[in-house]
Amino acid sequence: LALSPSFAGTFSPEFDRVTLEAGEDLAKTGDPVLSSTNFVGELTTTHFPWTPFSIVVVSAVALAVVATRLLQKWGKRSAASEDAATSGN
To answer: What pTM was estimated for this model as a whole?
Structure first.
């Protein structure tokens, strides 16, 4: 963490960029002690697990697409067999 009165800069191979930027936003107070405390607090706070959430949402959408397509094919076959049955009578 590099601090100046109006700027906070960070680099870390351990924390992702989004977490670092959120910490930078909280570290722009003008008081170096408060800024560093806010920054460390942001790094140690538990955040919502967006990666598993995104995987679940994308998987659910993919399953919905496949189910919709299967129902479309089933509906066309059912309609075709009904047409064949009614025209055969």
So the answer is: 0.56
